[in-house]
Design goal:
This protein is an alpha/beta fold. It has 2 domains: 134 residues, UDP N-Acetylglucosamine Acyltransferase, domain 1 (3 Solenoid); 52 residues, Udp N-acetylglucosamine O-acyltransferase, Domain 2 (Up-down Bundle), CATH 1.20.1180. The chain contains 4 helices and 27 strands. It has a 10-stranded mixed beta sheet. The protein has a 9-stranded parallel beta sheet with strand order 1-4-7-10-13-16-19-22-25, with no helix packed on it. An 8-stranded parallel beta sheet has the order 2-5-8-11-14-17-20-23, with no helix packed on it. A hairpin with a 2-residue loop joins strand 26 and strand 27. Helix 2 runs antiparallel to helix 3.
Length: 258
C-alpha cells in the first residue's frame, strides 16, 4: 500500500491499491475494491463492492461508488462496477454496479461527473463526457463519447445518448438522443446540430455541412425514416459519421427523439 493513506481512513485488508494512491481521512475502501495508481479518494468518500477504478482518478468527498444497486430485483448477486482512468467524480455522486449475477456498470475515461449526479445499475458510459450537477441516469442507460448532459437532467431507463450530443438543463429524456444533436425540453426533442461540440470534436467543415443536411432530412422535413434514409443515400456522400447516425436510429428500441 502507498504511504498516502490517512490513519483515520477505513481500508479493508482485502482492498488492492496500486502505487501512489491517496486515501483521505474517514474514507471507506471495501474489501473487493481495486484502485489504480495515482488515484485520490478524498475524505468521507466510499468505494464499495466489486469496484475497479483506473489510474489518475479523483473521487471527491462524500461520493459513494459501488454501493448496492437501487433495484428491487437485487438480492445480493455478485456484480461489478468498472471505472476507467482520468475521471473526476465530484461530491455526493453515486454510481451503482449491475443487478444480475456478473453484470456490470462501466464508465470510460476522462469523464467529469459533477456533484450529486447518479449513474444507476447496468449503465454504460463512454469517455470524455461531462455530466453537470444532478444529472441522473436510470438503469441500463447508454452514453456515448463526448456527450454533455445539463444539470438536473433525468434520463429514463434503457435510453441511449449518441456521441457528441448535448442535452439542455432540466430536460426529461424518455427516448434515444441521436448523435451530434442538441436536444432540450419535456420530453427532450432535437433542436438541431450540436455545432459547438462538433467543432470542439474537430469534425471538418464539410462533415458538419453534410450532417446539417442529414439532420434537416431526418428531423425537420416530413419524411418517414425509410424515405429519409433513401434521400440521404441519394443526395449525400458516404461517410462514417452519417453511417453512425443512421445505424444509431435504426437500432433504437425506445424510439428516437424528434
Amino acid at each position: 500500500m502507498s504511504s498516502n493513506i490517512s490513519p483515520k481512513s477505513l481500508v479493508s485488508p482485502g482492498a488492492q491499491l496500486a502505487a501512489n494512491v491517496t486515501i483521505g481521512p474517514f474514507a471507506i475502501i471495501g474489501e473487493h475494491a481495486k484502485i489504480g495508481p495515482n488515484t485520490v479518494i478524498d475524505s468521507f468518500a466510499q468505494v464499495l463492492g466489486y469496484t475497479q477504478i483506473g489510474a489518475n482518478c479523483h473521487i471527491f468527498p462524500y461520493a459513494v461508488i459501488g454501493n448496492v444497486p437501487q433495484d428491487l430485483k437485487y438480492t445480493g448477486q455478485k456484480s461489478f462496477l468498472i471505472i476507467g482512468k482520468n475521471n473526476c467524480i465530484r461530491e455526493f455522486v453515486t454510481i451503482n454496479p449491475g443487478t444480475e449475477e456478473n453484470s456490470k456498470t462501466s464508465v470510460g475515461d476522462n469523464n467529469l461527473i459533477m456533484a450529486y449526479s447518479h449513474i444507476a445499475h447496468d449503465c454504460t458510459v463512454g469517455s470524455d463526457n461531462v455530466f453537470a450537477n444532478a444529472a441522473t441516469l436510470a438503469g441500463h442507460v447508454e452514453i456515448g463519447d463526448k456527450v454533455v448532459i445539463g444539470g438536473l437532467v433525468a434520463i429514463h431507463q434503457f435510453c441511449r445518448l449518441g456521441d457528441l450530443s448535448i442535452i439542455g438543463g432540466c430536460s426529461k429524456v424518455v427516448q434515444d438522443i441521436p448523435p451530434y444533436s442538441m436536444s432540450d425540453g419535456h420530453p427532450a426533442k432535437v433542436c438541431g446540430l450540436n455545432l459547438v461540440g462538433l467543432r470542439r470534436g474537430k469534425l471538418s467543415a464539410k462533415t458538419i455541412s453534410n450532417l446539417k443536411k442529414a439532420f434537416k432530412i431526418l428531423f425537420f422535413e416530413n419524411h418517414s425514416f425509410d424515405n429519409a434514409k433513401a434521400l440521404i443515400a441519394k443526395n449525400l456522400p458516404s461517410q462514417k459519421e452519417i453511417s453512425y447516425l443512421i445505424d444509431f436510429i435504426s437500432s433504437s428500441k425506445r424510439g428516437v427523439s424528434k
